[in-house]
Amino acid sequence: NPRTYIGSGKVAEIKSAIHAFDAETVIFDDELSPGQLRNLEKAFGGDVRVCDRTALILDIFNQRAATREAALQVSLAQMEYQLPRLTRMWTHLERQAGGQVKGMGEKQIEVDKRILRTQIGALKKEIESVRKHRKQYRNRRTAVPVPVVSLVGYTNAGKSTLLNRLTGADVLAEDKLFATLDPTTRRVQMKNGKEFLLSDTVGFIQKLPTTLVAAFRATLEEISESSLLVHVVDISHPLAEQQIEAVDKVLSELDASSIPMLMVWNKVDKANDPEKIIMEAKRNDVVCISALTGEGLEEFCNAVQERLKDMMVWVEALIPFDKGELLSTIHRVGMVEKTVYAENGTLVRAYVPLRFARLLTPMRQICMS
Ligand SMILES: Nc1nc2c(ncn2[C@@H]2O[C@H](COP(=O)(O)OP(=O)(O)OP(=O)(O)O)[C@@H](O)[C@H]2O)c(=O)[nH]1
Ligand SMILES: [Mg+2]
Fold first, then answer.
1. Is the CB of 266 inside a 6 Å radius of any atom of ligand 1?
2. Is 34:177 a contact under the CB 8 Å cutoff?
3. For residue 105, what pLDDT band results from cuts at 50, 70 and 90?
4. pLDDT tens-digit profile of 246-297?
5. Where along this sequence does the record place binding of Mg(2+) (predicted)?
């Protein structure tokens, strides 16, 4: 029934369950229209609060927001959610009052809407300045050509645990939905001296409210500007497959589908049949790990390095002796095949990130034998 989302029989069933369990809140696993919310509240009677999936997610985000940036973004999403609902709420009051306060109600809606819109405008401005700041920071970071690898995945998949494990960072990792709202980037140093930047960010969820995606644009832009995505999956979760689909869907909304991706199955230690899973992973070019026990992490780093190499370009360059720091950078971020010391500098043959190759162009017209 479009008026109440569920049919009248279901309404009666829920109503008796409310009485039986003395429930205070009814949560719908979908987004409800403002009218449906109101009609359901009326049908269930009195003190029962009806809440939809979007409101619940916004609520959890609100509880988790620990930094100013996260709080700003959550407030924006909440206000955008309230705006249409606010209007209808007043129309509802008007009808109850039999139209007596019609003029007043209308005025009040206008006032409230204006206040909310002004607040939304101010918030957007503030978030925009955060965005610019982030962008500047990223630009400064790209001056050093270390590739950025972003962890993406369903909430609670183990992204923060993996980052902590690899970098000794101290990011809050908890058995909670949306433990992380703020992006964190850390340097990962591999045994062979190579390094990359690993970035952890907010987890995704099925039917992620669009207001949230829009509000978290500043945060999510980190993802769309990385060289490689690592999709972390909780393979021990019974709904792992649906979660993968949900993540892919959000990635395509973020225009990040074209970024190369490495799939990682996490929590193998907890899976029912680990051998079977590891076999299947091998067939599918997936790396199996346990961020908790450390199993598979070396293989993971190697796989990341392999993928990054695919994105590098081949250069042959003569690095003058007074540019020695360039040479050490090549060793750090690239893969050197050969170096020869010549009279006027060092000849290098290597795979390097494209951005870095551009820096080397003036030195490239060199022949090596
Ligand atoms: N058994 C097991 N538990 C793990 C593993 N990796 C992470 N966990 C647990 O899973 C829970 C969620 O981990 P987080 O690292 O917070 O997950 P997240 O992906 O960062 O979650 P959000 O920040 O909400 O997106 C924590 O309780 C971790 O201890 C693993 O390999 N094995
Ligand atoms: Mg996290």
1. yes
2. no
3. low
4. 999 989 888 888 889 999 999 999 999 989 999 999 999 999 999 999 999 9
5. 160, 180
Helix residue spans in the chain (DSSP H): 8-21, 34-44, 53-64, 68-96, 102-143, 159-167, 210-215, 217-224, 240-253, 274-283, 297-310, 324-333, 354-360
Average confidence (pLDDT) over 109-137 = 87
Q: Which of 64, 155, 160 to mutate to test the pocket of ligand 1 (most atoms within 8 A of CB)?
A: 160
Residue range 10-29: mean pLDDT, rounded: 95
Neighbours of ion ligand 2 (CB under 5 A): 159-160, 179-180
Token output for 69: 């940036």
Contact 85, 67 (CB under 8 A): no
State the Cα–Cα distance between residues 334 and 313, nearest whole angstrom.
Answer: 9
Domains and CATH numbers, the chain: 8-121 (3.40.50.11060), 146-309 (3.40.50.300), 312-363 (no CATH)
Burial of 240 (0-12, 13-18, 19+ CB in 10 A): middle
pLDDT in tens, 173-223: 888 888 888 788 888 887 777 788 899 988 888 888 878 887 787 778 778
Of 192, 242, 220, 282, the residue nearest 77 (C-alpha): 220
Closest ligand 1 atom number to CA of residue 178: 24
Protein residue with least CA distance to atom 27, ligand 1: 175
Q: What was the ipTM of the complex prediction?
A: 0.98
Q: Please indicate whether residue 160 or residue 351 has the higher confidence score (pLDDT).
A: 160
Structure tokens at 154: 């369903």
Q: What is the dihedral of CA 264, 270, 275, 281, to 10 degrees?
A: -10
Q: For atom 2 of ligand 1, which residue has the closest CA?
A: 267
